[in-house]
User: Fold this.
Amino acid sequence: MRRFEYIKPTSVQEAVKFLADHPDEAMVMAGGTALVVMIDQGVLRPDYVVDLGGLSDLQGQDSSNETLHLGALTTVRTLERDPQIKERFGVLAEAASQVASVRIRNVATIGGTVSYGEPQTDIPAALIALNATATVVGTEGSRDVAVEDFFLGPYETVLEPGEIVTRVGVPAPSPRTGGCHMKFTIGSPENKPVANASVVLRLDSSGRCEEARIVMGAVGPIPLLATKAAAILKGEVLNETAFAAAAAKAAEESDPVDDLRGPAWYKRRIIRVLVERGLTWALSRAAAQSQ
Ligand SMILES: Cc1cc2nc3c(=O)[nH]c(=O)nc-3n(C[C@H](O)[C@H](O)[C@H](O)COP(=O)(O)OP(=O)(O)OC[C@H]3O[C@@H](n4cnc5c(N)ncnc54)[C@H](O)[C@@H]3O)c2cc1C
Assistant:
């Protein structure tokens, strides 16, 4: 592996100052599950690796103001196992439980999974379905970015040089809300997704669909919000026919490419099935919340 200098700042300000002073030579590391592999393979050649692991401001969680704030260093394993997240933000816990292996989930972080901008990813899809926001800090101050606006293209995000993600805020779902994350892989279930779908349904007091959020991963350059599919469901009594129509529309809205995980036509078929099944599960969970 190419040699680099290891930097371990003790405050966010120290970290962003160092990154701003070395925009082309320094790279941020959180869990290191992607970064270290890319350095080892020579894809990235930083002179400095800035380890965020010592920043207490990026740790922990608090749930004031109806929003759950998760520090950027929250591990995927915590998202999977934390009782509060499992109970209130089930779609996020479900997505986390399907990421790679326990060894990777133990170290990969929510901040890393968002900042990486990888198209074949699970957590960002669930965060978009839940209307989450990422807080970004640089030397000029901080800003909040909706996770659905965070991604610009494969491995490309709104992060400017020197900026880091410090936390992710997830608004508490309203009553009568249910979600589901569905992932399809080839080979081992630990592999990255051929396609995935994170869906959240909110019902009104009469049981009709008040809001649907359908997010598709790995079938486009970024996680895609299927807005036309969601519009089919809004205001409707939800049933198999409505879900089949929405899933067909979602497949039309997807934008997959041929690659080692399969041809585009195959991924379109898969995403259609995942969305339809995800909606069915989400409805049963939302209905259970209503009782
Ligand atoms: C074999 C394998 C299989 C995997 N399968 C899946 C899967 O199926 N689904 C899935 O969702 N994920 C999967 N992952 C995880 C995913 O690919 C990334 O490795 C992981 O999300 C990166 O998180 P990290 O904390 O380790 O980030 P790091 O590796 O530390 O960093 C990743 C990138 O984000 C930047 N970064 C990290 N944290 C911040 C921050 N707070 N602010 C700004 N920039 C930051 C780094 O500079 C780097 O560019 C898999 C990983 C492996 C190795």
Summary: The CA atoms of residues 3 and 36 lie 12 Å apart. The radius of gyration is 19 Å. The chain has a mean pLDDT of 96. The domain at 67-171 is CATH 3.30.465.10 (Uridine Diphospho-n-acetylenolpyruvylglucosamine Reductase; domain 3).
